[in-house]
Amino acid sequence: MAETVKLLGTKGSPYSHRAEVALRLKEVNFEFLHEDLAHKSDMLLRYNPIHKKIPVLVHEEKSIVESLIVVEYVHEAFNGYAILPSDPYERAMARFWASYIDEKVIPAFWMSCWTDGEMQKGFTGQAKEALTILESQLKGKKFFGGDSIGFVDLAAGMVAFWFGILQEVAGISLLNEEDYPVLCRWADDYCSVEAVKESLLDRKLLVAHFASKKEKIFATKAPVYD
Fold first, then answer.
1. Which terminal residue of the chain, N or C, has fewer Cβ atoms less than 10 Å from its own Cβ?
2. Phi, psi of 190 (to 5 degrees)
3. Is 48 in contact with 65 (CB distance < 8 Å)?
C-alpha cells in the first residue's frame, strides 16, 4: 500500500516552499493542500492545534510542523536524495546556519523593507552585516550544500526568491549584484533547480500580492504570505 503524504501550505509562503522542495528532491508522491490563511481549515487546526500555522506535513496521519523540522523529517523518513550531510559536524553546522538565516537574516531584511527613518537605517545595517556573513559561507561552493542544494539552501529559499520581490515592492535595494555578487549568483542557480522551480509561485503574482498588502504590512510589520 502506498504511503499517504499530504502537505498543508500555500505556494506564496517561503516556509511551505522549504517543505515542498524537500519532498520533490526525495521524489515523494504527495498531495499539496492549499490553505487560505484568512480562513484556516479544520484540517489545519486539527493537525497543528498549537501554532495553527503552515506548513504541516501529514505522513500516515501523523503531523509534523515547523518548516525546518519538516525538512529534517523528510530527510530521515524517505530514501534517496541527501538533504542533510552524513557527517555529524557538517550536519550540526547546517543546522546552525539554517537557524542563523531564520534568526538574523530574514528578520533584519524584512524590517528594512517596512520601516523608515532611523529605524530603517538600523535594520538595514543589520541586514547588510547578516547578508555579508551568509555570503561568506558560499566561498568556493556552488551551493551552501556543496555541488547540490541541501538543508541550508532550502532554509535560504526566501533569500533567493522572496527578497527580490520584497525589496521591489518596498522600493529599496539591499540584495544586489554589486554588493553581493556571490549570493546573487547562488540565488539564480538555486531558482534554476527543477525541484525549486516546481515549488515557486509566479513572480508577478507575488509582486502583486505584496503590493496589495503593502500598507497593511507597513502598519503591522507582520508577514503576509497567504
1. N
2. -60, -45
3. yes
What 3-state DSSP class applies to 85?
Answer: coil
Give the model's confidence band at 213: pLDDT under 50 very low, under 70 low, under 90 confident, else very high. Answer: confident
Starting at the edge strand found earlier in the chain, the sheet holding 31-34 runs 31-34, 5-9, 56-59, 62-65
What phi and psi, each to the nearest 5 degrees, are found at residue 56? Answer: -130, 125
Average pLDDT, rounded, for the chain:
95
* pLDDT over 80 (residue 3): no
- How does strand 62-65 pair with strand 5-9? unpaired
Indicate the SS3 state at residue 4.
coil
Which stretches within the chain are classed as H helix? Answer: 14-25, 42-47, 67-77, 88-100, 106-113, 117-136, 151-155, 157, 163-170, 181-192, 194-197, 203-212, 214-220
Would you say the pTM of this structure is higher than 0.85? Answer: yes
Model confidence pLDDT, tens digit, residues 54-64: 999 999 999 99
Average pLDDT over residues 156-180: 97
Closest among 86, 121, 124, 127 to 105, alpha carbons compared: 127
Which of 156, 212, 208 shows the shortest CA–CA distance to 184?
Answer: 156
